[in-house]
Write a structure and sequence with these properties.
Blueprint (H helix, E strand, L loop, with lengths): L5 E14 L5 E15 L4 E5 L6 H8 L7 E6 L2 E2 L5 H10 E4 L13 H11 L6 H14 L16 H13 L5 E5 L7 H18 L2 E5 L3 H7 L2 E6 L2 E7 H6 L4 H8 L49 E5 L2 E4 L7
Parallel strand pairs: 3-8, 3-9, 6-7, 7-8
Antiparallel strand pairs: 1-2, 1-4, 4-5, 9-10, 10-12, 11-12
Helix pairs in contact: 3-4, 3-5, 4-5
Length: 325
Protein backbone atom coordinates (compact mmCIF):
# COMPACT_ATOMS: atom_id res chain seq x y z
CA UNK A 1 0.00 0.00 0.00
CA UNK A 2 1.35 3.42 -0.98
CA UNK A 3 2.24 5.85 1.79
CA UNK A 4 0.12 9.03 1.54
CA UNK A 5 1.96 12.29 1.01
CA UNK A 6 0.38 13.68 4.18
CA UNK A 7 -1.27 11.77 7.01
CA UNK A 8 -3.19 13.80 9.61
CA UNK A 9 -4.06 11.87 12.75
CA UNK A 10 -6.41 13.21 15.46
CA UNK A 11 -5.08 16.75 15.06
CA UNK A 12 -6.35 19.40 17.49
CA UNK A 13 -5.41 23.04 18.05
CA UNK A 14 -6.57 25.23 20.94
CA UNK A 15 -5.83 28.82 21.90
CA UNK A 16 -5.83 30.53 25.27
CA UNK A 17 -8.88 32.84 25.46
CA UNK A 18 -8.36 34.24 28.94
CA UNK A 19 -6.30 33.83 32.11
CA UNK A 20 -6.99 34.50 35.79
CA UNK A 21 -5.10 36.87 38.09
CA UNK A 22 -2.39 34.27 38.60
CA UNK A 23 -1.80 33.71 34.88
CA UNK A 24 -3.55 30.37 34.82
CA UNK A 25 -5.64 29.54 31.77
CA UNK A 26 -9.31 30.05 32.56
CA UNK A 27 -10.77 29.56 29.08
CA UNK A 28 -9.59 27.97 25.86
CA UNK A 29 -10.88 28.03 22.31
CA UNK A 30 -10.71 24.67 20.53
CA UNK A 31 -10.28 25.83 16.94
CA UNK A 32 -9.55 22.40 15.43
CA UNK A 33 -10.80 19.23 17.08
CA UNK A 34 -9.73 15.65 16.36
CA UNK A 35 -9.22 16.02 12.60
CA UNK A 36 -7.94 13.01 10.62
CA UNK A 37 -7.44 12.47 6.88
CA UNK A 38 -4.92 11.28 4.28
CA UNK A 39 -3.74 13.33 1.33
CA UNK A 40 -2.50 11.43 -1.70
CA UNK A 41 0.12 12.69 -4.13
CA UNK A 42 -1.25 14.78 -6.98
CA UNK A 43 -4.73 15.32 -5.56
CA UNK A 44 -6.51 18.48 -4.44
CA UNK A 45 -8.35 18.37 -1.12
CA UNK A 46 -10.93 21.14 -0.84
CA UNK A 47 -11.61 22.40 2.69
CA UNK A 48 -14.91 24.26 3.11
CA UNK A 49 -17.10 25.61 5.88
CA UNK A 50 -18.43 28.82 7.40
CA UNK A 51 -16.11 31.57 8.65
CA UNK A 52 -14.57 30.61 11.97
CA UNK A 53 -14.92 26.85 11.50
CA UNK A 54 -11.15 26.27 11.74
CA UNK A 55 -10.17 25.94 8.06
CA UNK A 56 -7.30 28.44 8.11
CA UNK A 57 -6.09 27.26 11.52
CA UNK A 58 -5.90 23.71 10.18
CA UNK A 59 -4.01 24.92 7.09
CA UNK A 60 -1.45 26.74 9.24
CA UNK A 61 -1.00 23.65 11.40
CA UNK A 62 -0.28 21.57 8.32
CA UNK A 63 2.59 23.87 7.34
CA UNK A 64 3.71 24.20 11.00
CA UNK A 65 3.08 27.94 11.20
CA UNK A 66 0.98 26.96 14.22
CA UNK A 67 1.97 24.20 16.60
CA UNK A 68 -0.74 21.54 17.01
CA UNK A 69 -1.96 21.06 20.57
CA UNK A 70 -2.30 17.31 20.05
CA UNK A 71 -2.30 14.74 17.26
CA UNK A 72 0.25 13.83 14.63
CA UNK A 73 1.34 14.99 11.18
CA UNK A 74 3.18 12.51 8.97
CA UNK A 75 4.72 13.82 5.74
CA UNK A 76 5.82 11.01 3.43
CA UNK A 77 5.74 8.69 6.42
CA UNK A 78 7.89 10.90 8.67
CA UNK A 79 6.44 12.34 11.85
CA UNK A 80 6.86 16.11 11.50
CA UNK A 81 4.64 17.13 14.41
CA UNK A 82 7.47 18.37 16.62
CA UNK A 83 10.43 18.76 14.27
CA UNK A 84 12.49 21.93 14.78
CA UNK A 85 15.56 23.75 13.57
CA UNK A 86 17.23 22.50 10.41
CA UNK A 87 14.65 19.74 9.91
CA UNK A 88 11.78 22.21 10.08
CA UNK A 89 13.55 24.47 7.58
CA UNK A 90 14.00 21.53 5.24
CA UNK A 91 10.34 20.70 5.68
CA UNK A 92 9.39 24.23 4.63
CA UNK A 93 10.97 23.55 1.25
CA UNK A 94 8.46 20.78 0.69
CA UNK A 95 5.32 22.39 2.13
CA UNK A 96 4.47 25.98 1.23
CA UNK A 97 1.43 28.22 1.72
CA UNK A 98 -0.29 30.91 -0.37
CA UNK A 99 -2.22 33.39 1.74
CA UNK A 100 -5.55 35.10 1.13
CA UNK A 101 -4.68 38.79 0.92
CA UNK A 102 -2.44 39.64 -2.04
CA UNK A 103 -1.99 43.16 -0.62
CA UNK A 104 -0.69 42.03 2.77
CA UNK A 105 1.43 38.97 2.04
CA UNK A 106 4.16 40.81 0.08
CA UNK A 107 6.63 43.16 1.77
CA UNK A 108 5.97 46.57 0.15
CA UNK A 109 9.58 47.68 0.66
CA UNK A 110 11.05 44.85 -1.38
CA UNK A 111 11.13 44.56 -5.15
CA UNK A 112 9.60 41.51 -6.77
CA UNK A 113 13.10 40.29 -7.55
CA UNK A 114 14.04 40.49 -3.87
CA UNK A 115 10.82 38.75 -2.85
CA UNK A 116 11.46 35.83 -5.19
CA UNK A 117 15.17 35.42 -4.45
CA UNK A 118 14.81 35.65 -0.65
CA UNK A 119 13.53 32.03 -0.29
CA UNK A 120 16.43 30.85 -2.44
CA UNK A 121 18.91 32.59 -0.14
CA UNK A 122 17.25 31.36 3.06
CA UNK A 123 17.27 27.74 1.88
CA UNK A 124 20.70 27.89 0.22
CA UNK A 125 19.35 27.23 -3.27
CA UNK A 126 21.71 28.40 -6.07
CA UNK A 127 25.06 29.93 -5.17
CA UNK A 128 25.33 33.02 -7.35
CA UNK A 129 23.16 36.13 -7.45
CA UNK A 130 22.95 35.78 -11.23
CA UNK A 131 21.56 32.27 -11.04
CA UNK A 132 19.02 33.33 -8.43
CA UNK A 133 17.93 36.24 -10.62
CA UNK A 134 17.51 33.92 -13.59
CA UNK A 135 15.41 31.63 -11.41
CA UNK A 136 13.25 34.62 -10.37
CA UNK A 137 12.66 35.52 -14.03
CA UNK A 138 11.68 31.94 -14.77
CA UNK A 139 9.23 31.95 -11.85
CA UNK A 140 7.53 35.11 -13.13
CA UNK A 141 7.14 33.58 -16.57
CA UNK A 142 5.78 30.39 -14.99
CA UNK A 143 2.92 32.34 -13.39
CA UNK A 144 2.22 34.41 -16.51
CA UNK A 145 4.08 37.65 -15.72
CA UNK A 146 6.80 39.42 -17.67
CA UNK A 147 10.36 39.17 -16.30
CA UNK A 148 10.69 42.98 -16.42
CA UNK A 149 8.53 43.03 -13.30
CA UNK A 150 11.52 42.02 -11.15
CA UNK A 151 12.48 45.66 -10.65
CA UNK A 152 9.01 46.80 -9.59
CA UNK A 153 7.44 46.90 -6.13
CA UNK A 154 4.21 45.08 -5.16
CA UNK A 155 2.10 48.27 -5.13
CA UNK A 156 2.72 48.62 -8.87
CA UNK A 157 0.75 45.43 -9.59
CA UNK A 158 -2.94 44.62 -9.54
CA UNK A 159 -4.46 42.23 -6.98
CA UNK A 160 -4.45 39.32 -9.41
CA UNK A 161 -0.84 39.99 -10.38
CA UNK A 162 0.18 40.14 -6.72
CA UNK A 163 -1.46 36.78 -6.13
CA UNK A 164 0.57 35.39 -9.03
CA UNK A 165 3.71 36.77 -7.39
CA UNK A 166 2.70 35.09 -4.12
CA UNK A 167 2.28 31.80 -5.95
CA UNK A 168 5.66 32.27 -7.65
CA UNK A 169 7.32 32.90 -4.30
CA UNK A 170 5.77 29.72 -2.87
CA UNK A 171 7.03 27.75 -5.89
CA UNK A 172 10.57 29.15 -5.65
CA UNK A 173 11.76 26.30 -3.39
CA UNK A 174 10.03 23.62 -5.50
CA UNK A 175 7.55 22.31 -2.91
CA UNK A 176 5.51 19.14 -3.24
CA UNK A 177 2.52 20.34 -1.20
CA UNK A 178 0.89 23.77 -1.51
CA UNK A 179 -1.65 25.04 1.03
CA UNK A 180 -3.91 27.58 -0.70
CA UNK A 181 -5.59 29.51 2.11
CA UNK A 182 -8.50 31.42 0.52
CA UNK A 183 -6.12 32.15 -2.35
CA UNK A 184 -8.79 33.59 -4.66
CA UNK A 185 -11.47 34.92 -2.28
CA UNK A 186 -10.12 38.50 -2.28
CA UNK A 187 -10.15 38.73 -6.10
CA UNK A 188 -12.76 39.69 -8.66
CA UNK A 189 -14.64 36.80 -10.23
CA UNK A 190 -12.90 37.12 -13.62
CA UNK A 191 -9.49 37.21 -11.92
CA UNK A 192 -10.46 34.24 -9.75
CA UNK A 193 -10.97 32.16 -12.89
CA UNK A 194 -7.52 33.10 -14.18
CA UNK A 195 -5.80 32.17 -10.90
CA UNK A 196 -7.71 28.88 -10.69
CA UNK A 197 -6.67 28.01 -14.25
CA UNK A 198 -3.08 28.87 -13.35
CA UNK A 199 -3.15 26.65 -10.24
CA UNK A 200 -4.57 23.71 -12.18
CA UNK A 201 -1.98 24.15 -14.96
CA UNK A 202 0.84 24.31 -12.41
CA UNK A 203 -0.45 21.17 -10.73
CA UNK A 204 -0.15 19.26 -13.99
CA UNK A 205 3.26 20.68 -14.95
CA UNK A 206 4.93 20.50 -11.53
CA UNK A 207 3.10 17.47 -10.07
CA UNK A 208 1.85 19.47 -7.10
CA UNK A 209 -0.54 18.43 -4.36
CA UNK A 210 -2.98 21.02 -2.99
CA UNK A 211 -5.02 21.67 0.11
CA UNK A 212 -7.46 24.28 -1.20
CA UNK A 213 -9.19 26.24 1.58
CA UNK A 214 -12.21 28.29 0.51
CA UNK A 215 -15.75 29.23 1.42
CA UNK A 216 -16.99 29.37 -2.18
CA UNK A 217 -18.45 25.93 -2.83
CA UNK A 218 -18.55 26.35 -6.63
CA UNK A 219 -14.86 27.21 -6.72
CA UNK A 220 -14.03 24.18 -4.58
CA UNK A 221 -16.12 21.93 -6.81
CA UNK A 222 -14.14 23.04 -9.84
CA UNK A 223 -10.66 22.38 -8.50
CA UNK A 224 -10.98 19.59 -5.92
CA UNK A 225 -10.50 15.86 -6.14
CA UNK A 226 -12.04 15.38 -2.69
CA UNK A 227 -13.83 17.78 -0.36
CA UNK A 228 -13.81 17.99 3.45
CA UNK A 229 -16.60 19.94 5.14
CA UNK A 230 -15.76 21.55 8.50
CA UNK A 231 -18.09 22.74 11.23
CA UNK A 232 -16.89 24.22 14.53
CA UNK A 233 -13.46 22.62 14.30
CA UNK A 234 -14.61 19.16 13.14
CA UNK A 235 -14.65 17.52 9.73
CA UNK A 236 -18.25 16.35 9.42
CA UNK A 237 -18.03 14.90 5.91
CA UNK A 238 -15.20 13.90 3.59
CA UNK A 239 -15.87 12.53 0.13
CA UNK A 240 -14.88 12.59 -3.50
CA UNK A 241 -15.90 15.92 -4.96
CA UNK A 242 -18.30 14.55 -7.55
CA UNK A 243 -20.03 12.29 -5.04
CA UNK A 244 -20.30 14.92 -2.31
CA UNK A 245 -21.95 17.46 -4.59
CA UNK A 246 -24.29 14.90 -6.11
CA UNK A 247 -25.14 13.06 -2.89
CA UNK A 248 -24.34 15.03 0.30
CA UNK A 249 -24.84 12.85 3.37
CA UNK A 250 -24.45 15.17 6.36
CA UNK A 251 -27.28 17.64 7.15
CA UNK A 252 -24.78 20.52 7.33
CA UNK A 253 -23.36 19.69 3.90
CA UNK A 254 -26.89 19.48 2.52
CA UNK A 255 -27.68 22.93 3.92
CA UNK A 256 -24.50 24.46 2.49
CA UNK A 257 -25.13 23.06 -0.98
CA UNK A 258 -28.75 24.18 -0.95
CA UNK A 259 -27.57 27.78 -0.54
CA UNK A 260 -25.51 27.79 -3.77
CA UNK A 261 -27.18 30.21 -6.23
CA UNK A 262 -28.04 28.69 -9.61
CA UNK A 263 -28.09 31.16 -12.55
CA UNK A 264 -31.32 29.81 -14.01
CA UNK A 265 -34.57 31.79 -13.52
CA UNK A 266 -36.65 28.66 -14.10
CA UNK A 267 -34.86 26.68 -11.40
CA UNK A 268 -36.66 26.47 -8.06
CA UNK A 269 -34.21 25.16 -5.50
CA UNK A 270 -35.31 23.98 -2.07
CA UNK A 271 -33.35 25.94 0.51
CA UNK A 272 -32.56 24.17 3.78
CA UNK A 273 -32.67 26.82 6.53
CA UNK A 274 -30.47 26.47 9.61
CA UNK A 275 -31.67 27.68 13.01
CA UNK A 276 -29.73 30.35 14.86
CA UNK A 277 -26.04 31.20 14.56
CA UNK A 278 -22.86 29.18 14.76
CA UNK A 279 -22.21 28.48 18.48
CA UNK A 280 -19.19 30.01 20.15
CA UNK A 281 -16.10 27.76 20.16
CA UNK A 282 -15.55 28.95 23.74
CA UNK A 283 -18.63 27.01 24.79
CA UNK A 284 -19.51 24.46 22.08
CA UNK A 285 -22.68 22.39 22.42
CA UNK A 286 -22.51 18.96 24.00
CA UNK A 287 -22.70 15.84 21.87
CA UNK A 288 -22.80 16.69 18.19
CA UNK A 289 -21.81 20.36 17.85
CA UNK A 290 -24.29 20.79 14.99
CA UNK A 291 -27.37 19.48 16.80
CA UNK A 292 -28.80 22.89 17.95
CA UNK A 293 -29.12 23.95 14.28
CA UNK A 294 -29.73 20.58 12.64
CA UNK A 295 -33.16 20.04 11.05
CA UNK A 296 -32.74 16.27 11.53
CA UNK A 297 -31.54 16.28 15.16
CA UNK A 298 -32.95 13.83 17.69
CA UNK A 299 -32.53 13.78 21.48
CA UNK A 300 -29.51 11.47 21.37
CA UNK A 301 -27.55 14.03 19.28
CA UNK A 302 -27.31 16.30 22.33
CA UNK A 303 -25.58 13.53 24.30
CA UNK A 304 -23.26 11.79 21.82
CA UNK A 305 -21.71 12.39 18.44
CA UNK A 306 -23.40 10.08 15.88
CA UNK A 307 -21.27 7.09 14.97
CA UNK A 308 -19.23 7.64 11.82
CA UNK A 309 -20.23 5.40 8.97
CA UNK A 310 -17.53 4.51 6.48
CA UNK A 311 -19.27 3.94 3.18
CA UNK A 312 -15.94 3.47 1.43
CA UNK A 313 -12.41 4.41 2.48
CA UNK A 314 -12.67 7.57 0.37
CA UNK A 315 -16.11 8.58 1.66
CA UNK A 316 -16.70 9.33 5.31
CA UNK A 317 -20.28 10.34 6.07
CA UNK A 318 -21.14 11.38 9.59
CA UNK A 319 -24.71 11.33 10.85
CA UNK A 320 -26.96 9.50 8.44
CA UNK A 321 -29.92 9.71 10.84
CA UNK A 322 -33.24 11.29 10.14
CA UNK A 323 -35.64 12.71 12.68
CA UNK A 324 -38.41 10.30 13.70
CA UNK A 325 -41.81 10.96 12.22
Amino acid sequence: MNTPLLHVEHLSKSFTASTDLFGRVSARVLAVQDVSFDLERGETLGLVGESGCGKSTLGRCLVRLLEPTSGRLLFKGEDITTCKGARLRALRRQIQIVFQDPYAMLNPRMTVGELLTEPLIVHGILDSAGDRRDRAKQLLETVGLRPEGLERHPHEFSGGQRQRIGIARALAVEPELLICDEAVSALDVSIQAQILNLLMDLQQKLELTYVFIAHDLKVVERVSTRVAVMYLGNIVELAESRELYANPRHPYTQALLSAIPIPDPSHRATRIPLKGDVPSPLNPPSGCHFHPRCPQAIDECARTVPRLEVKRPEHLAACLRVAPE
